[in-house]
Specification:
It is built from 8 helices and 18 strands. The protein is of the alpha+beta class and 412 residues long. Strands 7, 8, 9, 10, 13 and 14 form a 6-stranded mixed β-sheet that branches. The longest helix is centred in the middle third of the chain and has 50 residues. InterPro entries: Bact_Sigma-Reg (IPR052016), PPM-type-like_dom_sf (IPR036457), PPM-type_phosphatase-like_dom (IPR001932).
């Protein structure tokens, strides 16, 4: 009788050792797969194979937390429930932190399974598992349940590391894109402000973040004519910067061969539409000034109206068309023309100037801006730009929420 017991104990020990060896081999296989950055579906498939073949688990539901919801990522055996139904049932066991028998549970979903296995990190539930058709008992039961919990812990950590790695790559990719966009935009923004006997120019560019869609340019066409443009492309990042680079090249090319602003804007519209397929647009104000005739021709394409200050009065320059890059043929296109007196100031800006957060009840709008121009129109371009920003920062006490570009000209 004693010999029989000794034989049974030895057989049980051998069976336990073999089982532990299988468990270690399973963990090793999973670890190797994780180290090779194996795709998530393959890891889940390996988990299912281990549970089915090594541990004889006949039914599995494995739910993981994602964006404060639980999704079922592994399931086999029996009638498959929806993730919503399974998550709702598992939340009834939210206070359970260790593998627990649930065969007699009152919930109609839970009672179909033998055990509930939770995976927690501190007080946060990371995953729930329901296993059924699992007949292991005795000393092997706790060992198997703990092994299943360990295996799922390893899978959860691997998935979380994959997520963090993807987020880091995305962050690095975004940062590099922003750096490239900044480089592109720095090449677009004129490095030197222009001043000669006929015109003085002052410009100020204040990006809200690393990169925006603002752009301005000044082109001396000949001895008695010059052209300038201020624009804002929709969107941010490298794609917006590249679109603006293409826009700048197109503007310079057509301004050199065509003296008609209407033709230039019409061609720019077609170029932008062709490049973006209508997914982006550009607002702009473009003007051409003839020093001999003292005549300014301009087109406002959906942009904030440039303000002309002259002899104590100020008017917004609104004639033009809609934004470019939206319609194949612009629905209307009107060119404005105005005579410019000596000492006139022309103030151009992008919409970021009007997008300020104010802690006070003070109103900031185009009427208030017009009043400011009337009060400060005799200043030089640089002094005007600085006075405006000082007013917004110190008097109005507002904070910008978008990129700001100021382009101010003084005509002599």
């Amino acid at each position: 009788m004693l010999n029989i017991d000794d034989g049974s104990g030895e057989d049980e020990l051998i069976r336990l050792l073999l089982k532990r060896q299988s468990e270690l081999n399973s963990l090793l296989e999973i670890t190797r797969a994780i180290n090779k950055n194996t795709a998530t579906p393959i890891l889940i498939q390996m988990l299912e194979v281990i549970l089915q073949n090594y541990l004889q688990v006949g039914k599995l539901r494995f739910l993981i937390e994602k964006d404060n919801k639980f999704a079922c990522i592994a399931k086999y055996g029996g009638d498959i429930e929806s993730s919503v139904v399974l998550a709702r049932a598992c939340k009834k066991l939210s206070k359970v932190k260790a593998p627990t028998a649930i065969a007699g549970h009152r919930d109609p979903v839970l009672k179909k399974y033998n055990y509930f296995i939770p995976v927690y990190h501190k007080s946060k539930a990371l995953a729930y598992a329901l296993i059924g058709d699992f007949n292991t008992s005795g000393e092997m039961l706790n060992n198997d349940l703990n092994f299943i919990q360990t295996l799922m812990n390893v899978i959860i950590v691997a998935l979380e590391n994959k997520k963090l790695f993807r987020e880091r790559l995305q962050s690095e990719r975004f940062q590099r894109e922003m750096e490239l966009a900044v480089e592109v935009q720095n090449m677009l923004i004129p490095m030197r402000e222009h001043k000669d006997d006929s015109v003085e120019i002052g410009a100020k560019y204040l990006p809200h973040q690393n990169i925006g869609g603002d752009y301005f340019d000044f082109i001396r066409l000949n001895d008695h004519e010059f052209l300038w443009c201020i624009a804002d492309v929709s969107g941010k990042g490298i794609s917006a910067a590249l679109l603006m680079a293409n826009f700048q090249a197109s503007l310079h090319a057509w301004a050199a061969v065509d003296g008609d602003l209407t033709n230039i804007v019409d061609r720019l519209n077609k170029i932008v539409l062709s490049n973006t397929k209508g997914e982006r647009f550009i607002t702009l104000f473009i003007a051409r000034y003839n020093q001999k005739k003292r005549r300014l021709n301009y087109i406002n394409a959906g942009h904030n109206p440039t303000i002309l200050y002259s002899e104590g009065g100020a008017i917004p320059l609104k004639l033009g068309t809609t934004m470019i890059g939206v319609f194949e043929d612009l629905p209307f296109l009107n060119e404005g023309e105005v005579d410019v007196e000596p000492g006139s100031l022309i103030f151009n800006y992008t919409d970021g100037l009007m997008d300020f957060e104010s802690p006070s009840s003070k109103v900031w709008n185009e009427d208030k801006l017009l009043d400011f121009v009337l009060a400060h129109g005799e200043l030089s371009p640089d002094n005007f730009n600085q006075a405006l920003m000082d007013y917004l920062n110190n008097v109005h006490k507002s904070k910008p929420i978008d990129d700001i570009t100021l382009l101010t000209l003084k005509i002599f």
